[in-house]
Amino acid sequence: MGEDGSGARSEVGIRRALIAPDDDSNETDEAPGSPRRLVHSDWLHSYGRRRGRRLKPNQTALIEKHLDALSVTTPLDLAAAFGQVPERLRLEIGFGGGEHLAHQAANNPDVSFLGAEPFMNGVATMLRHFEQKGLRNVRLYRGDARELFSGIPDGALEAIYVLHPDPWPKARHNKRRLIQKPFLDQAWRMLKPGGELRLATDDPDYLIWMLQRVLIHPGFEWTARTADDWRLIPADAIETRYGIKSRLEGRPATFLKLRRRETAA
Ligand SMILES: C[S@@+](CC[C@H](N)C(=O)[O-])C[C@H]1O[C@@H](n2cnc3c(N)ncnc32)[C@H](O)[C@@H]1O
Fold first, then answer.
1. What ligand 1 atom has the least distance to the C-alpha of 95?
2. Which end of the chain is more exposed for a tag (fewer CB within 10 A), N or C?
3. Sign of the C-alpha dihedral, residues 144, 27, 48, 200?
4. Are 113 and 140 in contact (CB under 8 A)?
């Protein structure tokens, strides 16, 4: 992706995304402002691998030591998971190795964090951060984050992070992308007014796809004022494993910080 104005990350590229979105026929349509709580069977599979890699002995040990105490189950019961319904709660979807989740949790000890990741290797890596940083404010779900949504009350979240979601680059797989209108409707429902939905991607095509959906969603406002607002990693974040990998491969991430509006009408 060049800086000559042709890349999706450039201002020209961003403006291209303002053109009407692609055919959204795969995306179910919910009335804005009143999304029902979708159940898991409403969603398509959104993660790439079906099976995780074999666990190393130290990963197995971390899992045996910590996972039961930290795990949430579905249907999600926030009071049971955290001892009481958290006043301040954030969700990270697809935390991978958990470095961003652990960083946020360590820097915000007064906030409770829920992280979802289907693969046990990532969960085990997160548990290493958990132990090293002595975190007490994180709970983990080993599965599809969307299975948690029905247990998250309206306006319960102050932020949702979705960093480098699987890009599903083949056109016939695009419908598996996490960022779809029904997902945005749920994010809007679960976030407090003024809450943040933060997306990051290193995939130029997925970036356009995201913009085409978030910019027309009435419930979100894109807060970027200058190009640095999408080109630079947010000050409170750290680069994730995929962020580092893609940068080294010449595909720096773009960050979309979206503010949840009061209404979605
Ligand atoms: C490309 S990786 C990025 C991981 C991490 N966020 C990072 O930036 O390094 C995408 C991750 O999202 C997870 N994922 C995809 N769909 C998910 C879903 N519906 N719920 C929870 N995690 C999901 C995948 O298992 C994978 O670990």
1. 6
2. C
3. negative
4. no
161 lines ligand 1 (CB under 6 A): no
Per-residue pLDDT tens digits of the chain, which is 265 residues long:
344 444 666 665 665 555 544 444 445 444 445 566 666 666 788 887 656 788 999 999 999 999 999 999 999 999 999 999 999 999 999 999 999 999 999 999 999 999 999 999 999 999 999 999 999 999 999 999 999 999 999 999 999 999 999 999 999 999 999 999 999 999 999 999 999 999 999 999 999 999 999 999 999 999 999 999 999 999 999 999 999 999 999 999 999 999 999 999 8
On whether the 5-260 domain is CATH 3.40.50.150, my answer is yes
**Residue position matching structure tokens 């580092």:** 244
Q: Among 155, 116, 145, 215, which residue's Cα sits nearest to residue 35?
A: 155
Residue (of 177, 189, 253) closest to 217 by Cα position: 189
Q: Report helix, strand or coil for 245.
A: helix
- Taking every pair of Cα atoms in the chain, the longest distance, rounded to a whole number of angstroms, is 53
C-alpha 185/C-alpha 28 separation (Å) is: 11
Q: Which atom of ligand 1 is nearest to the CA of 162?
A: 6
